[in-house]
Amino acid sequence: MKCVICKHGDTQLSTTTLTLERGGAVVAFKEVPAHVCTNCGEAYVDESVSAKLLGVAEQSIRNGVEIDVRKYAPV
Ligand SMILES: [Zn+2]
Fold first, then answer.
1. 36 C-alpha to center of ligand 1: Å?
2. Residue 75 pLDDT class (50, 70, 90 cuts)
3. Are residues 42 and 24 in contact, defined by beta-carbon separation less than 8 angstroms?
């Protein structure tokens, strides 16, 4: 896949840290599988993965979490 940010690099499968913010609360996921640009480092996370992580983050926030850093766990 061609990178849409720098328009030069190609992406390859790697991992990234995805940070989600909701109303002042921050939940970060480490080692999320992503397509990362070999040129500029932009990370593209699959829609299905980011949607799932958003659900997990919103659950944490409902439980009163303000800052959470967790490792990505595939289900
Ligand atoms: Zn790029």
1. 8
2. low
3. no
Interval 5-55: pLDDT, tens: 999 999 999 999 999 998 899 999 999 999 999 999 999 999 999 999 999
Domains of the chain: 11-71 (3.10.20)
- Please answer whether residues 17 and 30 qualify as being in contact, where contact means their C-beta atoms are separated by less than 8 angstroms: yes
| Cα–ligand 1 centroid distance for 14 (angstroms) | 14
- Residue matched to tokens 């299905």: 48
State the pTM of this model. Answer: 0.86
Q: How far is the CA of 43 from the centre of ligand 1 (A)?
A: 9
- What residues have a C-beta under 5 A from ligand 1, the ion? 3, 5-6, 9, 37, 39-40, 42
Residue 69's pLDDT is what? Answer: 97
Tokens of 73: 């766990």
Distance 6 CA to ligand 1 centre (A): 4
